[in-house]
């Protein structure tokens, strides 16, 4: 392999490595917790603490997204997933919020895993850019989340 070819591969970015470390810590923390109710309460506190750490614009959006998901899909349990607030059904992530700051992106993202029941024909959106969470956006999020778990 020439030196040019080896220089192209840089491996994981610092942000990706940090997300993987976050995920490993989340798994260790969850394994140490007691009862199912204790785990659920602690997981929600972890999500709220992570949201509180975000920069203002991301934090404001994450707080609104969290409230909308809690109200529109109470069957989803908040938990951290790779250092991001996420919402799971039977322990499996269905929807997540990714702050713009975390991956130095231009906008925050509301994403859905392949478990979300958003299938529409042969192609559908599984991620949405967020620059602001307005009442109209809240309605769209609520409808998507309800559909995702429906």
SSE blueprint and pairings:
Blueprint: H1 3-8, H2 14-32, H3 36-53, H4 56-72, E1 77-81, E2 84-89, E3 92-98, E4 108-112, E5 127-130, H5 135-149
Antiparallel strand pairs: 1-2, 2-3, 3-4, 4-5
The structural class is: alpha+beta
Helix content: 40-55%
Beta-sheet strand percentage?
15-25%
Principal-axis shape equals globular
C-alpha-based Rg, rounded: 17 Å
Number of helices: 5
What is the end-to-end distance?
51 Å
- Low-pLDDT parts are none
Strand ordering within the main sheet: 1-2-3-4-5
Q: Main β-sheet: number of strands, strand sense, barrel status?
A: 5 strands, antiparallel
Give the total of beta strands: 5
Return the string of H and E elements: HHHHEEEEEH
Average pLDDT, all residues: 91
Outline the structure in words.
The protein has 150 residues and is α+β, with helices and mostly antiparallel strands. It contains five helices and five strands; from the N terminus they run ααααβββββα. The chain has helices spanning 3-8, 14-32, 36-53, 56-72, 135-149, and strands at residues 77-81, 84-89, 92-98, 108-112, 127-130. A five-stranded antiparallel β-sheet has the order 1-2-3-4-5. A hairpin with a 2-residue loop joins β2 and β3 (92-98). The protein is globular and about 40 Å long.
Quick recap:
With 150 residues, this protein is of the alpha+beta class.
